[in-house]
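Technical annex, item 7. During the second reporting period the consortium partners agreed on a shared format for inverse folding records so that results from different sites could be compared directly. Each record opens with the tokenized structure and is followed by the designed sequence. A conforming record, contributed by the partner at site C, is shown below for reference.
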């Protein structure tokens, strides 16, 4: 680099050695000791370099020196501080995670103890009711048996005149037996499942299940002509103009519905749907026997016994099943909705994963395999993995 500088400035290479200021600055920048500095050879025939160009080189050297000083200071002062800050922040983060999980664990253990005690209490109450009923009906059976034996003896051992004399006694005993009523079904004899209802447990359970969502894809053979399906089979977009699809008995031909490709017949399953772009949609589950053709309620989600859906129309939210509609009051419109199905436990639940709020929960005994179902009449909705 120094020789290159000399080639531009012959005055810097004289018999007495380099003399111009930029040469001195360059040597100083090189970090060489005076006894290590090399005398650049003369190169005859070269013109004196322009002073403006020399100044530019000097300015560049100064800039490089300042840049080097800045980097040196950054490495010596800033990075050690960042390293220490990182250690402190990581330690705080670890401690926060540990302390919060300890707190959550303690709360869960307390809730577990409370709910188990309620289960035990309800179990004891039910057993006591059963014992009471057993004692009552055992006594009733004994009274009826005694009365029957008495009546048989009367008929067997008395003649007509004796029966007439015993008429009053027979009437009184028979009247007492008529006061014994037949057994009736009573809720007191059933274990009350509501004793384990816990908003805390419900939310924690829903959040945990939604952490392990089920892979869901839309079955393209079922999508309505009013819908367009993305290549990854995750996004449904409403189309005001009907599209042309191959004829298929599984396809909805009127309502903008679509079913997932896979049905569930046991276990717990969950999936998320992004709904932030749409103001008109339905999502939930249905039986595979759901009607596909026509504009009647048999094919309309939420208007028959084969479908359970959470829906939005403008700013109104509703849960619908078998033409029974329950308004769901929400403060804000969810951006995502999680759908959770416990097939064996008989529950379908709709959940806002961003705010950890259960939007609606419905109990149902499913008698057929169920399919995730979606419908959209504004913009698009997407399955989220």
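Designed sequence (site C submission):
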């Amino acid at each position: 680099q120094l020789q290159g500088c000399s080639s531009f400035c012959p005055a810097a290479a004289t018999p007495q050695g380099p003399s111009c200021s930029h040469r001195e600055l360059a040597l100083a920048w090189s970090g060489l000791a005076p006894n290590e500095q090399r005398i650049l050879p003369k190169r005859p025939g070269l013109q004196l370099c322009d002073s403006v160009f020399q100044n530019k080189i000097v300015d560049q050297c100064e800039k490089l020196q300042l840049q080097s000083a800045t980097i040196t200071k950054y490495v010596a002062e800033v990075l050690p501080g960042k390293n220490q800050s990182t250690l402190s922040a990581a330690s705080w983060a670890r401690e926060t995670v540990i302390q919060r999980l300890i707190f959550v664990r303690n709360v869960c253990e307390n809730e577990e103890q409370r709910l188990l005690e309620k289960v035990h209490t309800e179990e004891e109450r039910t057993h006591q009711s059963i014992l009471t009923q057993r004692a009552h009906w055992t006594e009733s059976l004994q009274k009826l048996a005694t009365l029957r034996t008495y009546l048989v003896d009367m008929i067997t051992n008395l003649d007509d005149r004796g029966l007439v004399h015993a008429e009053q006694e027979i009437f009184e005993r028979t009247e007492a037996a008529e006061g014994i009523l037949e057994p009736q079904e009573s809720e007191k004899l059933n274990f009350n499942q509501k004793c384990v209802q816990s908003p805390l447990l419900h939310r924690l359970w829903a959040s945990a299940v939604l952490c392990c969502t089920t892979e869901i894809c839309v079955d393209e053979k079922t999508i309505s002509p009013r819908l367009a399906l993305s290549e990854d089979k995750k996004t449904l977009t409403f189309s005001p103009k009907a599209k042309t699809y191959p004829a298929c008995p599984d396809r909805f031909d009127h309502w903008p519905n679509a079913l997932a490709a896979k049905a569930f017949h046991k276990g717990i399953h969950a999936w998320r749907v992004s709904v932030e772009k749409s103001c008109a949609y339905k999502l939930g589950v249905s039986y595979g026997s759901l009607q596909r053709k026509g504009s009647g309620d048999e094919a309309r989600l939420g208007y028959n016994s084969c479908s359970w859906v959470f829906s939005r129309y403008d700013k109104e939210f509703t849960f619908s099943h078998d033409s029974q509609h329950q308004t769901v009051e929400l403060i804000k419109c969810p951006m995502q909705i999680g759908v959770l199905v416990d097939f064996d436990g008989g529950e379908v639940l709709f959940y806002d994963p961003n705010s950890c709020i259960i939007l609606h929960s419905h109990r149902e005994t499913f008698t057929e395999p169920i399919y995730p179902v979606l419908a959209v009449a504004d913009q698009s909705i997407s399955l989220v993995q």
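The chain is about 40% helix and 20% strand. Confidence is low (pLDDT under 50) at residues 1-22, 36-46. All partners now use this format for quarterly exchanges.
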